[in-house]
Specification:
One of its GO terms (cellular component) is cytosol. The protein is an alpha/beta fold. Helix content is 37%, strand content 18%.
Length: 194
């Protein structure tokens, strides 16, 4: 564990269901982040008061505190179940309350859970919104299909999937606070000749 790591990672759980598979996967992501020495916090949207977004009333309910917590994070992990091919309405409402100042330059990781097949569309939608908010979205993302068999008693049952979730946790710490992703270095000798 890196005791000098002062990065703060916030996960936003876009599921309101008791026994949520999304919440379980995000908890595992934060456990991996904490193992590097980062501080972590799970923002469970089931416990947050956010009315449907009205731009004329953008500071109602828990919106100011939610935005403050997101602004305080070095990295944010957005997690959602997939509903009708996209992410949850409560997460959409949360992101509607946020603006570019809340996410600009923030490292963001993505995790989506589906009861059926691979939730690629929801990941693509979240990526587009995060980028529109000015966030740095890490390339590594987590899709959990067939969640009823992939998550049992709040734990991931598949080793490869658990490794992907943990990699997301370490990636958001590694890239948290960067102004831009590091450039790759290429060995000119390894390049093919023309």
């Amino acid at each position: 564990m890196d005791v000098h790591n002062s990065k703060h990672i916030v996960a936003v759980c876009g599921s309101q269901r008791d026994g949520s598979h999304t919440r379980a996967a995000l908890a595992q992501t934060l456990t991996a982040a904490a193992a590097t020495g980062a501080s972590t916090e799970l923002l469970d949207l089931a416990d947050i008061d956010l009315p449907v977004f009205d731009p004329a009333q953008d500071s109602v309910g828990d919106a100011p505190e939610l935005r403050r917590k997101i602004q305080s994070a070095d990295a944010v992990v957005l997690g959602s179940p997939m509903y009708h091919g996209s992410y949850s309405s409560i997460l959409k409402t949360t992101l509607d309350y946020c603006n570019r100042e809340d996410f600009d330059g923030t490292t963001v990781g993505l995790l989506v859970v589906a009861g059926g097949g691979f939730p690629t569309p929801a990941l693509e939608h979240l990526r587009s919104v995060a980028r529109a908010l000015g966030a740095w979205v890490v390339p590594h993302q987590v899709a959990i299909p067939n969640a009823n068999s992939a998550v049992q008693d709040g734990h991931l049952t598949d080793d490869a999937l658990r490794e992907r979730v943990e990699t997301l946790g370490t990636n958001v710490v590694e890239y948290a606070g960067v102004d831009e992703f590091p450039a790759t270095t290429v060995d000119p000798a390894a390049q093919p000749a023309d």
